[in-house]
Amino acid sequence: MVEFIIILIIIAIIAAISHAPKNSLAVELNLKETKTKQNWKEKRMISVTMNDQEMTVLTIAPTDADGDPAAVENVVWTTNNPDVVSLTTGSDPLTCQVYSRGVLGQAEITVEADADLGEGMSPLTETAYVTVIQSMATDLNLFAAAPTPKPPLE
Predict the structure, then answer these.
(1) By mean pLDDT, which of 24-28, 33-37, 58-62, 98-102 is the weakest?
(2) CA-CA distance, 83 to 85, in Å (whole number)?
(3) pTM tops 0.85, yes or no
């Protein structure tokens, strides 16, 4: 059954191509390729859930339009909710440690960088969403009270 459907699709494509004006398909494909490279940038949404005893590391890997590694400068990491998370950057500005502060809630971590390595400014911005949840119990800590006389039985 699947093979039959594939054959019908192939026949429909061949029929469409044979009835189309010459070079129209190539022009349409070229326009789509150009539009894809220039205007369509796939953004990944980064979302992290961690408990109030954890931390995570966020890293950026800047690329150019072809996906090749590219340099940026003036990288700045910020959070909209410093009560929920704190941020620490070390000697590598492309990496940021995100620490939960013990308060439950959500925070946005924004990283900004300048793609123009000269005097101009060409800002790039990405955002990660962090949710801090209550940590799970790890022990019941059972205790016994000191023995006491029992009440009289009825």
Answers:
(1) 24-28
(2) 6
(3) no
63 and 70 in contact (C-beta within 8 Å)? yes
pLDDT in tens, 81-108: 999 999 999 899 999 999 999 999 999 9
What domain count does the chain have? 1
Instruction: Quote the CA–CA distance of 99 and 117 in Å, as a whole number.
Output: 31
Q: For the chain, what is the mean pLDDT?
A: 81
Strands 46-51 and 123-133: parallel
- Burial (0-12, 13-18, 19+ Cβ within 10 Å), 84: buried
Q: How far apart are CA 69 and CA 72, in angstroms?
A: 10
In a domain, 119, yes or no: yes
Question: In CATH, what number is assigned to the domain containing residue 96?
Answer: 2.60.40.1080
pLDDT at 44 over 90: no
Nearest to 55, CA basis, from 92, 101, 121: 101
Contact 135, 51 (CB under 8 A): yes
